[in-house]
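Appendix B, example 12.
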Amino acid sequence: MSPPPQFSTYPIISMDEAVDRLRSSLAPLPPVTLPLAAALHHTLVSPIVAPAPQPPFPASTRDGYAVASADGPGTWRVSSRVAAGAAEPPPTLPRGTVAYITTGAEVPPGADAVVMVEDVEFVTGAASGNGDGDGDGDGDGNPDAVAAVVVKAAVAAGTHIRPVGSDVAVGEVLVPAGARLTPGAIGVAAAAGVATVTVTRMPVVGVLSTGNELVDLADTPHAPSAVIDANRPTLLAALATAVPACSTSAAAEAVAAGSGGVLDLGIVPDEAGAVAAAVAAAIGRVDVLLTSGGVSMGDADHVKPALAAAGRVVWGRLAIKPGKPLTFATFGRRDDNGAGDGPSPPRGDADDDASRPTQCAVGLPGNPASAFVGFHLVARTAIDLLSGGARCRPTTRGSDGRYRGGARGGARPGAAGAGACGRCLV
């Protein structure tokens, strides 16, 4: 067996250059149509447009009485009761009468204002009165027992009414293309009656640890020389926190459609054949492969050669501490059957997404701190780009807040920063 090389063939590059290479090496994943509830955290390919005005009818913003403002103050008979969600449109309000109405209900034709229930006096047991109602209500708060009300002051037309389309007009863009679907955006879309959305598919992420010394936490008993694998639990938890759609928290309907989710690929020993086989198998199952360990210069470090054989290593060393041997590679594009299409070609036209791969691997160092930092600085950036997010630039800052990227001496992340997309916060 020939001795391992003493010097890496991969030059050390700055964090800035690494991010530039990553951004120019990947294309977003293809679109997928999902039920609205399964699309949380996905990026919209097509905007969500209001198919109808909101509200679709003039709606009361208060519990009270619908009136014709021209009738003015006086004692007016309660002619009807209008509740939110009624199956039929309300009847036309006769002049000289009022209608009890609940918040959100359709204002009846003939009425153009709503007087709050607090601003009237109740008259019970009579169809009309002289304006001297008892002022204390009907005793049990039941509006059905109120025969008439005293409107004590004039009210302007439009008072406490939301006009048709005052919230959202027909054709109005509710959530633009390129936006990430947040809980608020989901609510806006649901209120507009949008049941499905077209979004960029989230990557399926695989997490693999390498090392002869590693054992799973659940494996007992442990040999004296064994080391419990902490990187896989850390990375799986980091995915659940930072990228829920690429974790065990992903919506089942999205995962069933091939969008998002995570695969725990276990532990592979430090054997060249085993590592190469694990990488090759992962290419057919995942869009992003996260490995930990096996990327340094030892004779048991086989991840870099395995990635190079399966695809193209974009970089093999970074000017950051911790995390210098962190490696990034691209593969190809998974087809509908979930198989990779071989090594990716060299980067072509910067604006030609079709020429770029949509599969990659991030070879993280085995040191847990290095793996954690590398996940946030590189893996999250790749996942964000693949899922249609802004092609962001994460920052690394020292404890004094100053940017540390770019120097050959390395960046030592202390208080970490966020990328332009706002989602790359460490």
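The longest helix spans residues 368-386. The helical segments are 15-25, 183-191, 231-242, 252-256, 272-283, 303-310, 368-386.
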